[in-house]
Design brief:
heterodimer; A: 284 residues; alpha/beta; 6-stranded parallel β-sheet; 3-stranded parallel β-sheet; 12 helices; globular; B: 272 residues; 8-stranded parallel β-sheet; 8 strands
Amino acid sequence: LIVDADAYVGSFWPGSELVDGRPDAVRARLEAMGVEVAFAALMEGAWYRDQRRANDQLADMVHAHRDFFRPLACIDPTASYAEEELTRCIDALDMRGVRLFPTYHHYRLDNPRVATLAHEAGRRRIPVFVTLMMEEDRFAHPAVAEMPLDKAELRDMTAVHLAPGLGSSLLRPLAALIASAPDSTFVVGMASVDQAHALLSLPMMCDGRVFFDIARMDRPTTGLDMLIGKHGAASLVFGSHAPFLYPEATLLNLAYRTFSGEHRQAILAANWTVNDVLQAVTSR
Amino acid sequence: MVDPLSRLEQRLEPFRGEVVDMHVHPTTDADDLAGELDQARRAGVGHIVMSHLGLPTVPRRASPAQLRTFNEFAASVRDRHVGWVDMYVATDPRTGESSVRDVEDGVRRLGAVGVKIEWCREDDGSLDSTVPVLKMAASLGVPVKIHTFFRKGGEDQGEVSPLHIAELANRCPEVTIIMAHSGGDWIRTARTVKSLPNVCGDTSGCTWRTGFTEFLVRELGPRRVLYGSDAPVRAFGPQLGKIVAADLTDDELRLVLVDNARRLFHLNGDQP
């Protein structure tokens, strides 16, 4: 069993005409490599101003695949109707989490409105998936500008060694959000090894409610080994970032490593069972 | 049930011990280097070709003395791993005529199997100083790998895009040029150099974006695409993964992972 925390379906992503986001195509590829459950958001959701439309579209797309996909609501927490939309997505559309795109919807994670939404998600016992980035900026379409990261953040992304510290315009607000919503469960997507290390070094991260997917944890070569050596694997989950990335390649990020098979199994699936919220939303 | 990871590893099994990773950098930290080489062995990489240039810690305008130090270090690593590690001679054409001499020395004395250039465009945009280096490489029978990028917002100072590679390939049709990272924006890159048979692309670095490998193989042909990882910047697993995950025939897979590098770098023992 593999649980995928970071999948997408959809029809269009600017500059990525080779990406096939049809639900049956994404499902077939993930199933072929052993994924049994995939948490999926609508890729266009990062662009829509009307997230209600995005959520309806996602619900339609995965309707025939609810045995496989667990849909994630796309909500801009700064919208006045954010909590109302969250309620609708949970109660009417049976969505299993909420995915935030702060770099696309252009808000800081320490905006009090984000904490309000996260608190409500915690009350409803669904996890908050935070997307730190969708694609490397240097490959993005020239017209695309994710919310800019500061220079310290860029240094984090290119560091070869684990570098503790939160010198980042994105990590400090994320840490503040997690602290301000103590009853909520978070799954952080596309964090680098250095970013995960920086956050996992904070004492508040040790309470079993913050997880990081491994979709971007390939650098440096032995970085994931070092991360698990320092913090264990209890806070890591598998995320393919399919269909943007070859999901098989993300899976091979767990191969040729020095950590144990138990750690690998924890990342692939077992960690979903040690957190009540994650276990509940994974089930049918 | 078969372990999903095992299924993927089985796809690589026919090439275990034969894979040539032609885009690796040696770290100077002994523990880091040991970890890097250990992961390469676990991944079944049978041959590595390495150069300092491209490490984030290396200055973008290294002095001739620094470049010679890099080359001597690479040679020392190679000498400790004879038959498994080979080296590029690292050079910067902007350092002047010494660059041409260093290439000759690197191939003849140090036994380099290729030339590595990272940044080479002069401040006025000229590529003139790069041409003699390429011609020397051609006379020595070794390929030249050049960091190449179509970068959003334009190239960095001194950086080379596939458009510059096309200019160089036309001015030096006798040399084989390998574009590191296949130019980043691989779609525009492949279209740019498709008609230039002396230009190849490597798959190193970058995230493993869906469609990347199939597109390169289809547009450039399977004999012009080479596997590389960019270790220690990147892990070996995902970089190999974007090759084995691609919809390629077994013959295409062998060319990309093994045979193209063996042919271009003369790793079968044949003389250039």
